[in-house]
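Appendix B, Record 12. Input sequence as logged:
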Amino acid sequence: LRTLSPADPAYRGRYGGNGAERDAAYHQGTVWPWLLGPFGEAALRVAEDQKQEKEFLKRHLRSFLRNHLREAGIGSVSEVFDGDPPHRPGGCIAQAWSVAELIRLFLLLR
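Logged structural output:
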């Protein structure tokens, strides 16, 4: 989930550069994986077909983790990702609240 819409003039699709450039992008379009927990919970609460929604969320969560844990996360979840494809990971490679929210989401999807 991006922190800002790509349609916004202040949007920055890449998290990189020196410290000041990274800070400027941090809340301007960067993807924060910890937001998947609250998003998934909300999606389940409003879904007309909870079973279908659970399967959708499981499929996409597994795909994300399968790829990320092998190539960048090294068994954990990165702090942030670029807002623009291919959504390159950035920040620290092991972010506790991102891991916690994804575990919580997996438990909700059981």
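The helical segments are 19-25, 36-46, 50-71, 96-108.
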